[in-house]
Amino acid sequence: MVSKRPASTLVEDPRTLRAIAHPVRNRILTELAATGPARAADLAQDLGIPANQTSFHLRQLAKYGLVEEAPEAARDRRDRVWKVVAEGGYLVNLRALEAAPETRAASLVWRSHFERWAHAVISAAMRRTSVDDGAVVTISDTALRLTDEEARAMVQELNDVVSTWAARTRGRDPQRRTYLLMYAAQPYPDLEISRDEHGADDGDANDSLGS
């Protein structure tokens, strides 16, 4: 049975945008989304930071409505367990945020954070290809000819597959580790080609000179 991806929460408040862009808080949100409800001590162990710092960041995330307490998962009234509010993740409309004067600065911070984060993720994956610890690491790209409607349908199918696996594996199983799946679907980007790339490579150049 396919699990439908919960609806994403639209982020429009600049303070919420800054909270999501904070590296530690973003990591906390990622872990809560992957494992489900967790205590500050559990998250601190996962992230390798002091529990009091984790508690502080959780309170800040709660302040902006990004996490909330999960009393249904607590052992008693003194046990504080946290969960994400938006199970479907967050949708950031950068075009709208950058167009509004009151949110432009926050949107630029978010864009800069996301670009650095995406670069760091790819760099980490490239480095991990030389580590043999049983983990699966894959980087691939595929060009497809699609109408816009077909592209939307394909992305929805991908989201449904990811949601099914997320629902199936959510929890704190010690045999599992947190995997990050990142993919981008877009019209083929108009990338600038450098002057060097216009010419032949060294091998072709030598062949041409020797003919």
UniProtKB/TrEMBL annotation:
Region Disordered, residue ranges: 192-211
Gene3D superfamilies in alphabetical order: Winged helix-like DNA-binding domain superfamily/Winged helix DNA-binding domain (1.10.10.10)
SMART domains linked to this entry: HTH_ARSR
Record-given protein name: Putative ArsR family transcriptional regulator
Basic and acidic residues: bias regions: 192-201
InterPro entries: ArsR-like_HTH, HTH_ArsR_DNA-bd_dom, WH-like_DNA-bd_sf, WH_DNA-bd_sf
Biological source species: Allobranchiibius huperziae
Boundaries of every HTH arsR-type domain copy: 15-95
Annotated Pfam families: HTH_20
